[in-house]
Amino acid sequence: MTRTLQGKQNRGRRNFKNARLQEAIARIEYLWSAAKSLRRALPTASRNYVLLLKKIATRVNHRLDPDELKRHICRRCGSILQLGSNAWVRVRYRLLILHCKSCGCFRRFPLRSKPSGRDSAAAIVVRTSAIEVTPACRGTDRELAAMSAV
């Protein structure tokens, strides 16, 4: 009889943790959409939203999606990386290099050894720069020009 009672107590605790995680994920999504909408008008507010988003994710031990969030956020200053205005991308030596112009931080992401079809370097750059690519930055680099052809 005590085993069933303990099982019910544990189920209630799991439901509490699950509800807390779902609430945190909803908050993270809301903060991300607010930060994206404010990135040009109020960059400091956008940066604060991103830092709060990261703090919530670490508190509930939730990993941020690499393609959706992590590659679009600067690790050092917390700004949203936007090609042409505050970030640039290079593809060198089978590495994708993201460089933040506001703080000077850069990150390297390895590319596959044999790119095939959709997983080529240009496709990875397109996935990385899914937020926005301005026409001014397309003509500056060969890699970005090749990206627009894909």
From TrEMBL:
Alphabetical GO biological process terms: tRNA 5'-leader removal
Keywords assigned by UniProt, alphabetized: Cytoplasm, Endonuclease, Hydrolase, Metal-binding, Nuclease, tRNA processing, Zinc
Presence of the UniProt keyword tRNA processing in the record: yes
UniProt superkingdom: Eukaryota
Acetylation in keyword set: no
GO cellular component: nucleolar ribonuclease P complex
Family: Belongs to the eukaryotic/archaeal RNase P protein component 4 family.
Name of this chain's protein: Uncharacterized protein
Species assigned in the record: Cyanidiococcus yangmingshanensis
UniProt lineage: Eukaryota, Rhodophyta, Bangiophyceae, Cyanidiales, Cyanidiaceae
